[in-house]
Amino acid sequence: MKTFSVSTKGHTDVIDISTRIESLLPKSKSGVVTVFVSGSTAAISAIEADPNLYEDLKDVLEKIAPYKKDWKHHKTWGDDNGAAHIRATIFGPSETIPFENGKLLLGQWQKIVLIDFDTGPRTREVIVSF
Amino acid sequence: MKTFSVSTKGHTDVIDISTRIESLLPKSKSGVVTVFVSGSTAAISAIEADPNLYEDLKDVLEKIAPYKKDWKHHKTWGDDNGAAHIRATIFGPSETIPFENGKLLLGQWQKIVLIDFDTGPRTREVIVSF
Amino acid sequence: MKTFSVSTKGHTDVIDISTRIESLLPKSKSGVVTVFVSGSTAAISAIEADPNLYEDLKDVLEKIAPYKKDWKHHKTWGDDNGAAHIRATIFGPSETIPFENGKLLLGQWQKIVLIDFDTGPRTREVIVSF
Q1: What is each CA distance from A111 to A91, B2, B128, in whole angstroms?
Q2: pTM over 0.80, yes/no
């Protein structure tokens, strides 16, 4: 098990972590690696590394769970990140990916990403287990 | 591999199972644990344990896949739980979480939850593998 | 680690791969199997094998991320599959499922499916790790 930190801007910030994951994998082994983000307003998924597509994703999620809405969660702690929680729960905090000789077995355009949905900058811890 | 049962009320019932998972983990080992729910109208995810946030989640899902809709699935078996199936499929039935010395490596507010989307009370089986 | 190929039609084509996964599992062992699809416009999830329900799922996703929309991603490469990318990212590329004596521990109606969201027929590679 290994960890690394990622600085994020929040507001559905999509960050390609494929290379960082691969740098931790044993070069001469094969298996699966579980990628997990600790924190209830971030998620792990896969997407093509296209900033235009990241904008499309933000537009879709803004319709499903808009940031500027009077979420009931905001009454609990005076928080402003109800949308971030909802988005993170729909995506889920983990993905498990096969690797061979230290390389993730991804499709040509497929990247593993950390998505930070929170409403401000954060430092996120990603836990990589293989 | 170990299992435990959870009594649920359905209708997007969110149940924190973090403590029950941890009670099954070996106290002196580290690794990853896969949490899986059998059944096609329930899911596993992570969320802050806030009942207000659970209500927000229900509101969002009610817009995406409302319970009171004439789903085509209802014609197949005379069921009334089309929305429950759709919601469960979007969330997925598994998450894999790292643990250390018997403790899940979750964020401060992050809990692992079983969500039962079905339209009545059920007993759910959760399968914990490590 | 084993792989198999699946011919898909795209447009949110749902294909039950439970039997193909089980055919690769060791008959006398138990554990977990990770099912992963390589490619950024497909996903793995679970659903009841009901064609009516597949239509319901398509209807819901068409509202969330419609195929015929002027996605920003289309400007990047001249592609037409922005909706497919968004859908795949929301679902995620992996699920991990427990098995016993070569049988997946699924619910009575629960099947593991490959969903191909792309806009034309494809051959998909599914990677099965246990």
Answers
A1: 15, 33, 28
A2: yes
